[in-house]
Design goal:
Elements: H1 2-16, H2 19-26, H3 30-44, E1 49-52, E2 55-58, H4 60-91, E3 93-98, H5 103-113, E4 120-125, H6 127-135, E5 141-145, E6 154-155, E7 159-161, E8 164-166, E9 188-191, H7 198-209, E10 217-219, H8 223-231, E11 235-239, H9 241-247, E12 251-253, E13 261-267, H10 273-287
Length: 292
């Protein structure tokens, strides 16, 4: 490390042409720079800098070695920067959230994870993508839809977020005091694509079929686009209450949990530890109050 530091002295002096200016550039006083360069020259057995009253200029040997010295210093700086980046990345809690996780719940989880000043990186994706990311070590944990194929990952407690059924304005169901499933026949079902989580998608369709409906599926990206599709008049959807309120759509309460959003925290097998507990606690607190 001393020799590298001395090469830094040499480069600074050669480029600045003055020991005082080199010391200022390095954030030091002049004597240590001069002494360090002398030690480097003694170690190499060659004079690198010619000192005079007019300043400091590289000798022939110094000019020959300067390009390599610059490369050495530059590579050392890059190495240090990359090591710092890796260190920071290792200390960052990387958490994934499925696309249908309510934003308020995401905020609650990230706020909890930042406790104590920890760095946090949030990733969104489909449930299968997030499961794969956790399994591959690209995320430390994720909040995903349940049911899901999670393989050997550790699974936290089941969290249930209520949802409502939304219908187009003016549809007969909008004025009904209680939900009649048969009145929805002829409407498509606006929902996330099956690729977002095949088991969860199939569970939802099975629940509709159990109530006498087998609607055409109109896939879209998220709750707000589901609301927009419903507002266009050709589909019904199942969304969080806050989304229905924002969109101004008629909504009806769903009588059971078959249509609720079911969430679980997944973490690496045997390696979730404190993160799993933090996430589960945050989701527990947030599910009772999430409205947007």
């Amino acid at each position: 490390m001393d020799q590298l530091r001395h090469w830094q002295f040499f480069v600074a002096v050669a480029e600045e042409g003055h020991f005082g200016a080199a010391a200022d550039r390095l954030g030091m006083t002049q004597p240590p720079v001069s002494q360090g360069l002398r030690r480097l020259e003694a170690h190499l057995g060659v004079e690198l800098i010619e000192r005079s009253a007019r300043g400091a200029v590289p000798t022939a040997a110094g000019r020959s070695l300067l390009p390599r010295a610059r490369g050495l210093v530059r590579d050392a700086e890059r190495l240090s920067t990359e090591a710092h980046r890796l260190s920071t990345a290792a200390e960052t809690r990387r958490c994934g959230f499925a696309v249908d996780v309510p934003p308020g719940l995401v905020t609650a989880c990230l706020t909890t994870l930042r406790t104590g000043g920890a760095a946090v990186a949030a990733v969104t994706g489909t449930t299968p993508e997030l499961v794969q990311a956790v399994a591959a070590g690209e995320a430390d944990g994720a909040v995903v839809e349940d049911p899901a194929v999670t393989g050997p990952l550790d699974r936290g407690a089941l969290h249930v977020v209520s949802r409502v059924l939304v219908v187009p304005p003016g549809h007969p169901t909008a004025a009904a005091r209680r939900l009649r499933w048969s009145a929805l026949r002829g409407l498509a079902f606006a929902c996330l694509p099956r690729s977002a989580n095949p088991p969860g998608h199939d569970r939802l369709l099975d629940a509709l079929r159990g109530r006498g409906l087998d609607p055409e599926v109109e896939a879209t990206d998220d709750d707000r686009r589901i609301a927009a599709t419903v507002a266009a008049g050709s589909a019904f959807g199942i969304v969080r209450p806050g989304v229905a309120d924002e969109a101004g759509l008629p909504s009806l309460a769903l009588p059971d949990d078959d249509f609720a959003l079911r969430l679980r925290v997944v973490t690496p097998s045997g390696g979730g530890g404190a993160l799993a507990g933090l996430l589960d606690g945050a989701v527990t607190r947030a599910t009772a109050q999430v409205r947007r």
